[in-house]
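To assess whether the prediction recovers the assembly geometry, we first specified each molecular entity separately, as shown.
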Amino acid sequence: MSKPHGGTLINRVVSDTRRQEIIENAKEMPSFKLSSALRKDAQNIASGLYSPLEGFLCMDDMENILEHSRLSNDVPWTIPIVLDMSEEEAKDFSEGDEIILESEDGKPFCLMDIEEIYTYDKEEFAESVYRTKDLEHPGVQKTMQMGSRLVGGKIIQIDDVRNPFEKYALKPIETRVLFKEKGWRTVVGFQTRNVPHNGHEYIQKTALTFVDGIFINPIIGKKKSGDFTDEVILETYDVLMKNYYLKNRAVMSILEAEMRYAGPKEAIFHAIIRKNYGCTHFIVGRDHAGVGDYYGPYAAQDIFDEFPDIGITPIFFKSFTYCKKCGGAVDGFICPHGDVHRENFSGTKMRALLVEGKIPPPHMMRPEVAKTVIEAERKFID
Amino acid sequence: MTEKKYTTVSIPVPLAKKVKKRMEGTGFTSLSSYVTYVLRQVISSIEEEERQKESFSKEDEEKVKERLRALGYLD
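The predicted structure of the complete assembly is given in tokenized form:
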């Protein structure tokens, strides 16, 4: 199993005995309300998913990430995890203050020791993380809307936010125990945001050939209108795993985080998160975490060359299609037949059929998966 | 943005020549970036060896196992 990134699995969740005391005092303390995205970041810091981070970044680490894609102690890190505030909001706080960070529903969620309040250059931030300053890029847009002040400091999580998918919300310490109990020495992580089709299954099972277990880890959270709902994604994976995977070789748990669409840099970030879950390998496909045409199709794979010390092995997949002659998923390196025999695993086409209540051909999507989508009460985000 | 954070390290010339020779065909174009790459690999493997076992008590582990059983992940 992989060691946690930076060497230690961080645990910044308060013990039961201190929790009540802090919540009592919270009423008297200055507070700041987190957005849903920031609350998820805080939660992921506290659970150790973002190990070795113990809080929101201070300036030294933040600038080092932008400049070198590493924390100031040289540990690889590509996405700055920062707490932003407007100048007006930041005026209420000073360095050295202990404040309460509230969840999006206004309840005390974290205690934060403010170490530093600092300014930053949004354009430089965007260009480093997203490799573009184009305002059409969703990540750049979000950066430009951020507050002008960043607040750094360690946090302690003092309460939970109710998770509608509690059963699937395993913490890294839990996945680590789980992998150990299953006897998995090697585990490959697979990230998804979609209902599985046979192309996904091909990738997962090809990777599974080389390791002891697969950790299917859908990202749950904010999505675009028209995307499949989180419920449908989880139900379809459940049905796929029940019917087509060995129980002792596949596990699913969710990752609550917002997509940044930072392509290559986010691929490194995603690999680090899976390393913290205990994965030894991580699947990186074509245009991982990309959006539009901002990144080359394999830029998210090439970037791993810059991180020989990342501590998790990426498994790269090229684009692949279904070959009618071979009778399975193929790419140009393993199939001698031409395009005329090939059919793309088109998510758009499969989606269109599902919307009409039709089951896609079985070589594209498992009928059980298709049926689950068709029968779902709420298939898509409004 | 702060200035680039680099420092200069002196190494014996014969060693530098040796490293340059080894660098050939690797795709690296500067001695500094190749040495940085090699050092990161070396340090990361030393750190890996030095790491202690995770500090997680048997009791904590049992609690986690209980939850995993309750959720259906373990029999």
